[in-house]
Amino acid sequence: MRQNLVGSSLVAALAALASAQSIDARAPSFPSNQGFFANVDASSPQMLADSFVVDAVNFPLGVTLGRVDWWGFVSDNLNPEGPLDISEIEAFHIDVYNNDGPGGAPGTLVQDNLVLAIDLEVTTFGGPTDSDVGGQAYALGANLPIPVSLAAAETYWIAINADVAGSALADGLFSWITTGSLVPDTQVAANNSGSWFTVSLGTSLAFAVEQVLDSDADGLSDADEINIYGTDPFDEDTDDDGVTDGDEIDLLVNGGLLCLSPLNPDSDGDSVSDGDEQLLMTNPCDADTDGDGLPDNLDPLPLDPGGNESEIEQDIRDIATTIELLPLDEINAKNEKAAAGRQNALCSKLNKAAKEAAEGDFAKAIDRLEKVLDKINGDPRKQWLVDDEPGETTKADIIEAIEFQILVLTFLL
Q1: Nearest CA to 198 among 39, 95, 24, 46?
Q2: Each residue of 17-42: b (16+ CB within 10 Å) or e?
Q3: CA 237 to CA 262: how far, in whole Å?
Q4: Distance CA 152, CA 228 (A)
Q5: Coil/strand/helix, residue 364
Q6: What is the pLDDT of residue 145?
Q7: 3-state secondary structure of 403
Q8: Cα distance between residue 31 and residue 21, in whole Å
Q9: I want to staple 210 with a disulfide (CB 3.0 to 4.6 A). Which of 20, 63, 268, 278 is the partner?
Q10: CA angle 95, 100, 103 (to 5 degrees)
């Protein structure tokens, strides 16, 4: 895990690196306007688009489009003198298309991003627009909910459509400001549910498409990692719990797991990492997923509140089987007959403890297991199992297994 750099002297430098990198940008002029967008639920909307190229020199490996900025205003198409407010916008669809349509027009949809109004960055731009349309112009921007992977040296089209509250095709509309005063109206090609219109006559729609840097490819921008989440923008799993920072934030925001943190490897404190909880399908926000009183880290069946006794019984019998299969020279005794007697005694006590656990008599099972443990790991002069040779862990594994079962049973008392 890399050191968390938030709060260090490197924050300023990292913040500079984390800024969005321009793929293409077209500055707006004012006042000017472009043909109207209809809201996307209209039966036959006009679709306005402009193209951009991913520069192979600056982006030889392609680029991830993560942010779009654009300029425009809302108008009442039925009443040109009664402009609508930006608050009428409910959402924008920001669509990226390949240029594989007729004559290089927009063709295959690469990605549709729905940006809700609450996620928009909105500032006023210039003064009121011309008298034909009225209304305040705005600069709008948004980070895309789903970043778009684009190939180097390819041409793409961008189309932005507005959802305007309560409007139909001829009612409230959004107009996209251009870079010049000319108003192009060249129809490029018919496409599916309407005609594509693109900019011509030497002007362009005003927009900027930007790459939001994500150095560790975890789905979070470097800027958000530094300024919002406090995670390491160069480590996809800041807390090393097996879940990427982006996935943890997604599960927190969209999955309802409000305890999750990309800075805490064990969000519910049950000694099972958030990544392991995903593998086990347990709840990383609940230390006892099945609510049976046994924490997930001790529960042999963490998703089954009723199956612990039988599972514990089997685990204890497995310990007995391990001891039963030991060579007699690993039992401390005067001779083979005595070694066999001690081996049988240990197995008998363990099998009785297993039966008591299955019957729910946890106190008796614990007492019997502690007596077995004393025979194996008590007074060094009286231990019944031979110490492990270097590199071997047979005795240590048996001791650990018995101690674990005692701990489990203690929680069930």
Answers
A1: 46
A2: ebebeebbebebebbbbbebbbbbeb
A3: 7
A4: 31
A5: helix
A6: 83
A7: helix
A8: 28
A9: 20
A10: 115
Number of H helices, E strands in the chain: 8, 13
CA dihedral for 23, 24, 30, 32, sign (positive or negative): negative
Instruction: Assign 228 a pLDDT band (cuts: 50, 70, 90).
Output: confident
H helix or E strand, kind and range, residue 23? strand 21-25
Measured CA to CA, the distance from residue 350 to residue 356 in angstroms comes to 10
Rounded Cα distance, 167 and 123, in Å:
23
Q: Which long-range contacts (C-beta less than 8 Å, at least 24 apart) are formed by 260-263?
A: 260/284, 260/285, 262/229, 262/231, 262/237, 262/238, 263/4, 263/229, 263/230, 263/231, 263/238, 263/239
Closest CA to 153 of 77, 226, 55, 63: 55
Q: Which two tokens stand for residue 229?
A: 């989440």
Residues in the chain: 413
Q: What is the pLDDT of residues 301-311, one digit of tens each?
A: 788 776 677 88
- Give me 281's structure tokens: 């399908």
- Tell me if residue 50 falls in helix, strand or coil: strand
CB 166 within 8 A of CB 172: yes
